[in-house]
TrEMBL record:
Homodimer. It comes from Gracilibacillus marinus. Residues 345-418 form the Pyrimidine nucleoside phosphorylase C-terminal domain. Its EC number is 2.4.2.2. It catalyses: uridine + phosphate = alpha-D-ribose 1-phosphate + uracil; thymidine + phosphate = 2-deoxy-alpha-D-ribose 1-phosphate + thymine; 2'-deoxyuridine + phosphate = 2-deoxy-alpha-D-ribose 1-phosphate + uracil. Keywords: Glycosyltransferase, Transferase. The keyword Nucleotide-binding does not apply. SMART domains: PYNP_C (SM00941). It is an enzyme of class 2 (transferase). Belongs to the thymidine/pyrimidine-nucleoside phosphorylase family. This is Pyrimidine-nucleoside phosphorylase.
Length: 433
């Protein structure tokens, strides 16, 4: 078997066999195939695509290129959640405790952020003492006892994905749905869950800007999951504006705690219940979606979801006093309001631009070596559909410097304000099963 023949085959639009995909991945990982040939294959896939069997096989051998997490000692049906990423996305801190309080084990491996704001691990590290590097034994023990543990990703989880992504990034082949889907699903399947719920974002702050592309990606990932014996569901959710009102690491933890304590922040609560409902039905604790939503609402009202979050933080050595009193979370020196320069209704928001503004404050990373400032961020005062008067605050910037002209300019340009009234955004667009 020769790599040049595999490239020609895909260039001509023909299907690759499982053996050919296995040959390509295994030999690329052992440095027997040069980057220039793999780049050619990635470009051929970009233009010709892959069918669901090809994509499932690519995912399978990417999984097998590294470690697969053994969760066999975790009691019960393990369900994981994955978000394709957005601005203000603190859903793990709402969904994880909700699902844990319902009795479903969530053994989660999460990454750090590169871009808008920190990742789940960065946000958790805004809680003093929180340990993201548990031993495997302690990780399993925590999941069995508290039904929830979150740790940093192992460096050897689907290493073929890491190697391929670095090459795709410099050869303009990132935006291929089969390659995106296999990249995401290889890490999720290697993480060891029995079932997976995907939160696929769509809109200005999402990787997929159009609803059509978001649905294509969701369908592809659901097919991969099922092909590889993981019951998988995808929820298509809105990212035309940030989730909730807080952007930034400690800010987002604080807002998630408020939701778990019963505050009705509409979009966070709606999406949290939606994702947790599918997870608990897949996990077998509730028989229907309707029953799940009702019971999950009760777990917020009776305090059990917040108790599950508190237990999870304490079990990983986090300082629970900051959970009980969120004013103790890291904060910034300055809190500066950005005022509206006109009156009207907020018609649109550039969520990605708002995320970029948060990164400039220090809430995210422009390069992998940048350090996160846990206390900085942005509080939104207006969202799509809200009326704003001239000189009324659009956002508050939480910063450690007062030199914010660039950030203020980004924020002002991110808001589209018009005299005509407009409806609030829909949160859930579709569910793909």
């Amino acid at each position: 078997m020769r790599m040049v023949d595999i490239i020609a085959q895909k260039r001509n639009g023909d299907k690759l066999t499982e053996e050919e995909i296995q040959f390509f991945i295994e030999n690329y990982m052992s440095d027997k195939i040069p980057d220039y040939q793999v780049a050619s294959l990635m470009m051929a896939i970009y233009f010709q695509g892959m069918d669901e069997e090809e994509t499932a096989n690519l995912t399978k051998y990417m999984v097998q290129s590294g470690d697969e997490i053994d969760l066999s000692k975790v009691q019960g049906h393990k369900v994981d959640k994955h978000s394709t990423g957005g601005v203000g996305d603190k859903m793990t801190f709402i969904v994880g405790p909700l699902v844990a309080a319902a009795g479903i084990p969530v053994a989660k491996m999460s990454g750090r952020g590169l871009g808008h704001t920190g990742g789940t691990i960065d946000k958790l590290e805004s809680i003093p003492g929180f340990d993201v590097e548990l031993s495997n034994e302690q990780f399993i023990k925590n999941v069995n006892k508290y039904k929830l543990a979150v740790v940093g990703q192992t460096g050897n989880l689907a290493p073929a994905d890491k190697k391929l992504y670095a090459l795709r990034d410099v050869t303009a082949t990132v935006n291929s749905i089969p390659l995106i889907a296999s990249s995401i699903m290889s890490k999720k399947i290697a993480s060891g869950a029995d079932s997976i719920v995907l939160d696929v974002k769509t809109g200005s702050g999402a990787f997929m800007k159009s609803l059509e592309d978001s649905k294509k990606l969701a369908k592809e990932m659901v097919k991969i999951g099922k092909e590889l014996n993981r019951n998988t569901i995808a929820v298509i959710s809105d990212m035309n504006q940030p989730l909730g009102y807080e952007i930034g690491n400690a800010n987002e933890v604080k807002e998630a705690i408020e939701v778990l304590q019963g505050k009705n922040i509409e979009d966070l609560r709606e999406l949290g219940i939606e994702l947790a409902a599918h997870m608990t039905v897949l996990g077998g604790v509730y028989s229907t979606y309707a029953e799940a939503t009702e019971r999950l609402e009760q777990l917020i009202q009776n305090g059990k979801a917040f108790e599950a979050f508190r237990n999870f933080i304490k079990a990983q050595n986090g300082d629970v006093s900051v959970i009980d009193d969120v004013s103790k979370l890291p904060t910034s020196k300055f809190h500066i309001e950005v005022l509206a320069t006109t009156s009207g209704y907020v018609h649109a928001m550039d969520a990605e631009a708002i995320g970029t503004a948060a990164m400039h404050l220090g809430a995210g990373r422009a390069t992998k070596d940048d350090k996160i400032n846990h206390g900085v961020g942005i509080t939104l005062h207006k969202k799509i559909g809200d009326y704003v008067a001239m000189d009324e605050p659009l956002v508050t910037l939480h910063a450690d410097t007062e030199s914010l002209n660039q950030v203020i300019d980004i924020i002002r340009k991110a808001f589209t304000i018009n005299e005509k009234k407009v409806d609030k955004n829909k949160m859930i667009y579709d569910v793909i099963k």
